[in-house]
Amino acid sequence: MALDPSVVGTIIPGHEALVERGRLRFFAQAIGETNPIYGDVEAAKAAGHRDLVVPPTFLFCLDMEKPDPFALVRSLKIDMRYVLHGEQSFEYHALAYAGDTLAYNGKVTDVYSKKNGALDFLVRTAEVTRDGELIARLTNTLVVRTPKAQK
Fold it and tell me: Torsions phi, psi of 139, nearest 5?
């Protein structure tokens, strides 16, 4: 079943996430980040930051912490067995730090099909803010395989 283009503009319920130092250190270690501004508070401060710097892609992890990260997919009656994470992009405006509370507000920004309807694409964009200041814009594309579509 093709995704209905009328879902473009659908607001995704917002949420807030607290950035914790321990999680930043763990994430930096997991991705092999060796720059001390991501794991050592004193090194971060010596480099001119007020606390540990949030690694860029960590913002996606915090977005997945909303109370029900797959509510939109379910509401569109998309079968999760056919969903792939197609693309993720980040547009940065300011740094985020440990101790920040970040607000996420998103919406569906595009829906399109390829391969004669065998693949549908759902594009979601979230703005990440701190006290009203834009920190980043995250764009995520889900690919939905349509098994019964003509190829």
Answer: -120, 130
Give the pLDDT confidence of 48-69 residue by residue, as tens digits.
999 999 998 999 999 988 888 8
Burial class (CB in 10 A: 0-12, 13-18, 19+), 80: exposed
CA distances from 97 to 29, 53, 144 (A): 17, 5, 34
- Angle at Cα 102 formed by Cα 42 and Cα 40, nearest 5°? 15
| DSSP state letter for 97 | B
| Rounded-to-integer distance, Cα 103 and Cα 90, Å | 16
pTM of the model: 0.89
